[in-house]
Amino acid sequence: MKSEQVIQRLSTTPEASIESLQEHRYWLQCERAYTYQPIYRIDGRLMAVEILTVVTHPSNPGQRIAPDRYFAEVSVRQRLDVLEEQLNMLSGFGAFFLQHDILASVNVDGPTLLALRQNPSLLDLVASLPWMRFELVEHVRLPQDSSFATMCEFGPLWLDDFGTGMANFSALSEVQYDYIKVARDLFIMLRQTSEGRNLFTLLLQLMNRYCKGVIVEGVETLEEWRDVQGSPAAAAQGYFLSRPVPMESLESVIITL
Prior knowledge:
With 257 residues, the chain is α/β, with parallel strands linked by helices. 42% of the residues lie in helices and 23% in strands. It contains 10 helices and 10 strands. Strand 1 and strand 2 form a beta hairpin. The longest helix has 28 residues, at 2-29. The radius of gyration is 21 Å and the shape is globular. It starts with a helix and ends in an 11-residue tail after the last strand.
């Protein structure tokens, strides 16, 4: 019986290896493009732009691949390459960000940010972009010997998607975030009732104690925008304010709504 199991394992392993190799090659062949989505303060002034990644594959260029799926499939080394690509692209707009006093946020996961510490040239590039902020995905799992506190050396950090995944206030006590972004799902859930709206106000007031300000994500209607403007939030982003726009048009972004 044992010999049969060994023979069966040997016969299936090559196919599994080929499938794994093909899948690895698929993700390496993916192509990337970049867009941005504006983030506006509640008074209508442009505060920042978030850099978004559009991922496609040459076999079906019209079909977008979810960025979360793409970054989950590629190695940390490849994620660092993407980060370098984004930062080099942003460096070409440096004068624009300085002139208008606007920030640019770049999404990054914990393991990639920690690996960045071992890349001196990339660290120098980060240091040359004082208006750039790393937007840390909230649900990231760090190595056991690491902590969020070790990331403070990268300058002010933003916390993304508060209210999804492993959402809790313990993350807020581990590091002083510059801005915290509240996920649309939490925003929509709380605004459905008067009790929820009161809780939303109290929640933002509490979060403001841990950061410079709160940004509400996913604002899609005028009514939602008015609710954010009447709340303790500092800013918002979403389709009502602007859909993602190609990076080539950055210098024509609306500075004030």
